[in-house]
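User: Show me a protein chain along with its predicted structure.
Assistant: Here is one chain, sequence first, then structure tokens.
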Amino acid sequence: MSDGPRYLHVIQRYFPFRGGSERYFQAFSERFARAGARVRVVTTNAWDLEYFWDPKARHIDEREAVINDVDVLRVPVHHLPVATLSHRAIRRLMAESGRVPLPGHDALLQSGSRFGPWLPTLDDELERLEPPDIVNSANIAFESMIAAASRHARKHDVPHIVTPFLHIGESADKRVVRYYTMPHQIDLLRQADAVMLLTDVERDALLERGIDERRLHVVGAGIDVDAVTGGDATRARAILGLVGPMVLALGAAAFEKGTLHLIDAVVSLRESGDDIHLVLAGPMMSDVRRRLESLGEPQREGIHALGFVSDEQRRDLLAAAEVLALPSRTESFGLVFMEAWANCKPVIGARAGAIPAVVSDGEDGLLVPFGDVAALADAIKTLLQSDELAREMGRHGNSKVVSEEEWFERVRALYAQVGGTQLARTPIGV
């Protein structure tokens, strides 16, 4: 076994699930392991996001595994009676309480946070592990895991990094951001040795909420370019039977990701005579599934819902697509934009969250208001009607791609800094 430093990474899901935050943690976990660190990931047994509140959703039975030299432990999610209603009601009440303090406000937040998600054995599971040298936990919407990681770090007197994956939502609509900036969540960030961020949008939002800037570290994001390029476009199109232009959506399909609006935009374009295909590649939430089931057969013809795809299929789809669309309001970066740019493809995003800090409107992609189906359809049509504009945007985007190696050096530097300082044990400003 390696004699290197011991890193404990705590996150809500992990490989084989491949969401954005999960792939982010997997990338630096495996790179640290290859560099000689002893890396342990503690996660949950959830597969579907909906498993956090619905016991009927999918989960992973395997408790322990070694994945590319990273030790992975999965802690079981527990469920409340009348799970869906109870979970959502608690989170809604907590968010509203954070906005307008109610009697018993602090007690409500502390009690409710235990169920986000409910992992009653997590503290004991952490204590059974070899004490770490550094703890890094995510994300702030799953604050019970961050709170447990914080307690564990303090007990062993080691630094604690929090990677919040903060979702800002739309600037004029505070419904999203309230769920990520409740007082007890902000307190967890204040207590951390360091807060690891992807963009200046996250940094500015936390500065506004009183987090000392010396705790905030923007490390950005990067991708393994070779892993997402070199795909076979012809093979992807042949498997799907596609002839016309293709719009690709990679990642979770959900209302907050703009998937419903994307479906409606493509249906509208097809009804106007445009031979356009939409490919959805990634896990599908129940609201999207219901929307697809409600469509008539002619409307469904141009929509291809694939669910999870292999790495090879992902490369092929990126090679085959004319444009990638992620019109989401819940992104702390959007790694798929960089994957599309690595293939010199233009992108469409929503003018929400951190996306405007990643996509330069009119230069490497187009931005539309979240939920604006007409604007989304216009953006798709604009890029599909002008090959020259699409190629130019793809080239501009390609120049912004950051390699995984370059990004990892920033993460490594942060670990070295935090590991060599007593910052959190002497609170800033005290």
